[in-house]
Amino acid sequence: MTKNGEDSPLHQSSEAPGKGDSAANDSGPLNTSLVDAKSCNEHNDALKLTARNAAGEISPYQPRPPLLPRLSKSSRSISVEETVRTRRLRNSQESLSDPVETGSSTDSLKEDHTAPAPGGFVPSTAATTRNEQDFNVRPISAVTAGSPVFRDRVSSLSEYERRPPSQQSDPTDHWARSAKVRLSPVQPTGTLPALDKSFASASFRAANRIDRDCLDYAVLAREKLGERLHRNLSDSRLLENMGSDSASVNSMRSTYSVLSPIRPQDVRNRSFLEGSVLGSGALLGAEELDRYFPDRRVGIYIATWNMQGEKGLPANLDDLLLPTDSEFAQDFYVIGVQEGCPDRREWETRLQETLGPYYVMLYAASHGVLYLTVFVRRDLIWFCSEVEHATVTTRIISQIKTKGAVGIAFTFFGTSFLFITSHFTSGDAKVYERVLDYNKIVEALALPKGLPDTNPYRSTPSDVTTRFDQVFWFGDFNFRLSKDRVDVEAIMSRTVGGDMGRLLEHDQLSKEMKDGSIFKGFQEAPIHFLPTYKFDIGCDIYDTTSKQRTPSYTDRILFRSRQADDIKVVKYTSCSSIKTSDHRPVISVFQVKLRPGRDNIPLGAGQFDRSLYLEGIRRRITRELKRREAMKNQSSSTICTIS
Fold first, then answer.
1. Residue 242: phi, psi to the nearest 5?
2. In what order do the strands lie in the sheet with 567-574?
């Protein structure tokens, strides 16, 4: 109780929230009498008393007296309306000059509508919006202590407000002194330039490219599906700091899926299991081909190597499959081996370990010690058909499988491929026998078996190489240089700039191909490397045994295509760093033309050798851990000596 026997402002304010809420929520006309000017003045005097308590202490958040009831529209006096306008103007000016209220963040202005002012009350925004003539105020005590706005106000008290009560002056004077002149916001003098519709990065736009058959989906996403795309993103926090244009939404969507939308009409027109026979609508058709290969060319890496039956494999096969002078890895890796190591599975595992997780073994076949292995990028395996293979022996006794051929055939999109590795009869003078080996292979290699011929009108039953679009034949053909060793070494010593033309003048294979007796329709890239046979093991010296064999180009890679210029040679060389055999491996890189396919091609359903893949990756990880452990031990084993 105060000296006058009236309730203290604190006691009065305990009921203020209830009364204030009742007055604010009442939508009907108030049944109260007109308040005259005298009662208003008395009420204003009571408001000023709330700034001080009985002990004379001042608090920036003192409880406020209850609200006055809203006056009806019909009974308001002109003097009351003038008082309201004056109070609103004063409160708004003080709110702008308050350093607590005028922050740099616009969000704080949006969230807080109850900032304290020297007059004690602030107008309610909701009431002002509902009716400009209504007078509705809310006491500061209506803000609960647990409110985040209230906590912000407490943490932002000025130095003046933290002073002891005895050092504080009249709060009205303090507010007047602390007021600052605020400049009005600068308005643009002209029209602002329009923003680009897509401010997403170029990489995002490329990652979210929409196919030509779905171009209308770009407009549909902007006009109708914009909100749904926002809601479909699983992490809404990622959207808080990004632009709200459709390009940003599409960029975010591209990180979740690279699949293009499918229209119901497309599903009605074709089945994705069988499909149509039309190239334009096939699963292997032009749309899919252009998506993965815009230039419609696939990279193929071919290696052939006579391993001489050695049990010990090179410690590292990187130079064989991943040479340092290549800018990019290729899409297919095809490796043919003659006189392979006894453990064929170990050889395939080493290949998988070298190529790593980006590649899977599509197929592997063998004929005795002839091994043929095909690896493909794992994201392209879905466009490969079922794989077929066949073998032919050229020995009189068929049980001896050291000479002959093994072939692998499959279709990639609409282009059929045939890869053959072979080992012909050896001997310097046995050219005729080698021609016979070739003829027997092209006639007896039974491929394709179930794959459809992509161009049956250009196929010949007597020649397997005419039944495929792209054919690669590689191996140890055993053709020699028809020259004495002394003369060959003299020519090699005078060779400058990799020009092997003078050596190739004596090459048996080149002569037979020109005569048309072997490899009809095949081509070979220009040779700019030294002969690959025969070396002493572990060095770059040609045969020093009693036989003194003449250096020769026994290991070759040839190619043939149904269409001219379909195969482009990128590289043709030997791998001189692998010296575990008397032969040097020969490698070649090609860019091969692709054509769309039809849905009558039996797909391989993404099958590959999973157990080989897992074993290769396990070894790859183990090798890396051992390397790191060796480096760690080497760095920690430094010995310091004191002299």
1. -115, 160
2. 359-367, 370-377, 332-338, 297-306, 586-593, 567-574
Can you tell me the distance from the alpha carbon of 365 to that of 609, in angstroms, rounded to the nearest whole number?
A: 13
Coil, strand, or helix at residue 279? helix
Specify whether the CB–CB gap between 68 and 21 falls below 8 A. no
Averages of pLDDT over runs of 10 residues in the chain (643 residues) are: 43 42 42 47 53 47 59 50 56 49 42 44 44 43 44 47 53 51 73 59 40 44 45 40 42 49 70 49 83 95 94 90 92 97 95 96 96 96 96 80 93 96 95 96 95 89 95 98 94 88 95 96 96 95 93 97 95 95 97 91 92 95 90 73 53
User: Residue 434's closest CA among 407, 403, 398, 461?
Assistant: 403
Torsional class of 493: left (φ above 0), alpha (ψ -120 to 50), beta (otherwise): alpha
β-pairing, 297-306 vs 332-338, is parallel
Least Cα distance to 442 among 421, 467, 463 occurs for 463
Instruction: For residue 511, give the nearest of 420, 629, 575, 432 by alpha carbon.
Output: 432
Which pLDDT does position 634 carry in this prediction? 84
Both structure tokens of 271: 């089945």
Q: What share of the chain is helix, strand, coil (3-state, %, to 5)?
A: 35, 15, 50
Whole-number Å distance between alpha carbons of 216 and 210: 9
324 in Cβ contact with 494 (< 8 Å): no
Q: Please give the backbone phi and psi of residue 507, each rounded to the nearest 5 degrees, phi first.
A: -80, 125
**Residue-by-residue DSSP string for 218-253:** HHHHHHTSHHHHHHH-S-GGGGTTS--SHHHHHHHH
Q: What's the pLDDT score for residue 462?
A: 92
Q: d(Cα 62, Cα 74) in Å, to the nearest integer?
A: 34
Give the CA angle between residues 617, 622, 626 to the nearest 5°. Answer: 150
Q: Largest alpha-carbon pair distance within the chain?
A: 135
What pLDDT score was predicted for residue 498? Answer: 84
Please check whether residue 436 is in contact with residue 404, taking contact to mean a CB–CB distance below 8 angstroms: no
Instruction: Give the pLDDT of residue 87.
Output: 58
Residues 6+ apart with CB under 8 A from 312: 580
- Nearest CA-CA partner of 470 in 333, 565, 406, 371: 565
239 phi and psi, to 5 degrees?
-90, -10
Rounded CA-CA distance 449/455 in Å is 15
Q: Whose CA is closest to 469, among 405, 418, 518?
A: 418
| For helices 610-636 and 344-355, angle between their N-to-C axes, nearest 10 degrees | 70
Q: How many Cα atoms within 13 Å fall on the side-chain side of residue 582?
A: 17
Q: Residue 21 and residue 206: Cα distance in Å, rounded?
A: 56
For residue 448, is the peptide bond before it cis, meaning its omega torsion is within 30 degrees of 0? yes
Tokens at 530, concatenated: 């030294």
Q: Are 576 and 538 in contact (CB under 8 A)?
A: no
Bridge pairing between strands 370-377 and 404-412: unpaired
pLDDT for residue 187: 75
Note whether 581 and 305 are within 8 A (CB).
Answer: yes
> Are the beta carbons of 599 and 340 closer than 8 angstroms?
no
- What is the sign of the dihedral through the CA atoms of 604, 607, 612 and 614? positive
